[in-house]
Write a structure and sequence with these properties.
Elements: H1 2-27, H2 44-50, E1 57-58, E2 61-63, E3 68-72, E4 76-79, E5 81-83, E6 91-96, E7 101-104, E8 107-108, E9 114-118, E10 122-130, E11 135-143
Parallel strand pairs: 3-11
Antiparallel strand pairs: 1-2, 2-5, 4-9, 6-8, 6-10, 7-9, 10-11
């Protein structure tokens, strides 16, 4: 009888732990949380975390997300990258985060909406290069 009760308790504890993990994973995807970065653009919290304003320019390339992107786990942000004054030139993004993020698509022009999704907690960077070999490095950090 004692064995049966212990087994039921173990199932209950295991089930509650699994539910807690599911809720924690879903927390990053809820658009109701302040630090969540909605797929439609940059949140106020992201701007505060980065200490820069959206649309910051650097050299010849322009990033609508600035030079530092902070994404919650399972959250995403959409960015535009282009040469200053030229939105038709092709740009290519290279992911140097070793699997922390997913970028889609990996090439386009200034009108292309690049979606960056946080897959694993950690930090790294992406490089953006245009057809004229101008390069921009953007730091990426994924947190819980």
């Amino acid at each position: 009888m004692q064995y049966h009760h212990n087994r039921q308790r173990l199932r209950l504890v295991t089930g509650m732990a699994a539910l807690s993990l599911i809720l924690a994973a879903c927390h990053g995807g809820s658009s109701g949380t302040a630090p969540y970065v909605p797929a439609g653009g940059t949140s106020f919290q992201q701007v505060v975390d980065r200490g820069i304003t959206p649309g910051e320019e650097h050299g010849e390339l322009f990033s609508s997300c600035g030079l530092h992107i902070h994404i919650m786990l399972a959250g995403s942000v959409n960015c535009h990258f282009h040469e200053r004054g030229n939105r038709s030139d092709r740009v290519t993004l290279k992911n140097h985060t070793h699997g922390l993020i997913l970028i889609s698509p990996t090439s386009g022009n200034g009108h292309t909406k690049f979606s960056i999704t946080g897959l694993v907690v950690g930090s790294g960077h992406i490089t953006i290069q245009d057809g004229r070999k101008n390069t921009l490095v953007v730091a990426v950090k994924v947190t819980l």
